[in-house]
Write a structure and sequence with these properties.
2 domains; 29% strand; 6-stranded mixed beta sheet; single chain
């Protein structure tokens, strides 16, 4: 049992696979060499328990509410309900400028959702960057399963399985979570009230904390170190020493040796990984050049001119050439196909109003934005007797002809815009 208190991060204890996951292959190995001589820095109060961090939602910053708006909407559309608001208040790291989180539960009270935010100062570029993490978790008797986009995290302890996805789409992450959950034989634990969820969450945090202290990844700070860190925060002296550089020749020699060791200990049949350049986006198995390299996916998504204009025609052709199956076995398979059709960072999802039918069936109307073309690809499907059948697939100009709602009457699909004007008909 380790005593709660202020702990600093010992970067020397970080594993190669953790750093490669954080930074990619080449930069991860280089960072590994740098961290062998890096001194631990000021950290925060650990373990970070729900009990200690819970706060009124008014305490969360305006920046938090702005940055998380689309993600909060996605959680709500998935049926999740907020059950707690949290904020780190005992932080001694001057590079972390803001934080906040929302914990969620789904209607069955078996699926735990988390939306986490922090704003970090990157001294190399002299800018503050927002980071968003999304996670969905199910608890079992002796283990748990999570799907998350949090790639920059320490290794999980043995009983906790984590699937990591490079996406900020909460619906996609939730979809993958449900797919993984279907493979589990055990039924997830149900939390009858918020207190039972809090107790489980805190116990899990304590377990992770103790595992990392045993690794010497977290080292307790002395009273003198805590006092010095608090004084530095109070003074506003946030300047940090420049990152240590490794001479190119030394780095090359170390990297060669390190890769050789890893290859000698790796099975030859291990699947290779492809590491993308930081200025390209992958879609439908192809790579498309962005306008520039971005520090984060959020920065890319928020830039309206984030793609190389020479790539726009090819992107449009690729989106329109994707073949849609005539039928899908269930809604989950159909929605997964629609997520795959959506270009990263651009709009996609159901239309604003619930579609109407006169035969008792259910319509699903999905739109996918074609980047920087003022066009959307629409796919309309009907669910009947548990099967999904695609009824229509077309492209429409999003200026003036954006579909607001759809009706199926007497085997005819009718599409209406925001002015309630009929803009398209199709006889089935």
């Amino acid at each position: 049992m380790f005593i709660p208190g202020y702990y600093k991060i010992n970067y020397r204890a970080m594993r190669v696979r953790e750093l490669v996951r954080w930074y990619g292959f080449q930069r991860g190995f280089k960072t590994y060499l740098i961290t062998r001589s890096k001194q631990p820095n000021a950290g925060s109060w650990m373990p970070g328990l729900w009990t200690d961090m819970q706060c009124p939602q008014e305490d969360l910053s305006e920046e938090f509410w702005l940055a998380t708006k689309p993600h909060r909407l996605a959680f709500e559309q998935l049926g999740f309900v907020a059950c707690a608001f949290l904020k780190v208040t005992k932080n001694l790291n001057p590079l972390i400028r803001d934080s906040g989180a929302i914990n969620y539960l789904d209607p069955t009270r078996r699926h735990f959702g988390q939306l986490l935010f922090n704003r970090v100062y990157h001294r190399n570029v002299g800018e503050e960057v927002n980071n968003i993490a999304i996670a969905f978790t199910a608890a079992f008797a002796k283990s748990s399963l999570s799907c998350t986009n949090n790639l920059r995290a320490f290794d999980a302890f043995a009983s906790h399985k984590i699937i990591r996805l490079a996406s900020y789409d909460a619906k996609l992450i939730h979809q993958k979570f449900l797919e993984q959950l279907q493979r589990c034989k055990e039924v997830p634990r149900q939390f009858p009230d918020d207190e039972s969820l809090r107790q489980w969450s805190d116990a899990r945090q304590v377990e992770a904390f103790e595992d990392r202290v045993r690794r010497r990844l977290f080292i307790p700070m002395t009273d003198e170190e805590v006092a010095a860190a608090k004084a530095r925060l109070a003074s506003g002296d946030f300047k940090s020493a420049p990152p240590r550089r490794i001479p190119k020749l030394a780095f090359a020699l170390w990297l060669t040796a390190l890769v050789a060791i890893i290859l000698l200990h790796s099975p030859s049949r291990r699947r290779s990984h492809t590491y993308l350049r930081p200025d390209v986006m992958e879609y439908q198995g192809q790579q498309f050049k962005m306008r520039k390299a971005y520090l984060s996916y959020e920065d890319y998504k928020d830039d309206p001119n984030n793609l190389d204009t020479n790539e726009l025609d090819r992107i449009e052709q690729t989106m329109l050439s994707v073949k849609i199956q005539p039928t899908y076995k269930d809604r989950r398979e159909f929605m997964s196909a629609m997520v795959d059709l959506t270009f990263p960072g651009y709009g996609g999802g159901g239309i604003g109003e619930v579609p109407q039918t006169d035969d008792g069936s259910t319509l699903y109307v999905q739109s996918m934005e074609i980047p920087q073309r003022d066009k959307d690809r629409y796919v309309v499907a009907r669910e009947s007797d548990g099967q999904i059948t695609v009824l229509d697939d077309f492209v429409s100009n999003s200026i003036g002809n954006e579909v607001r709602h759809v009706k199926l009457e007497k085997q005819t699909l009718r599409y209406y815009n925001f002015g309630n004007q009929l803009i398209r008909e199709k006889q089935l």
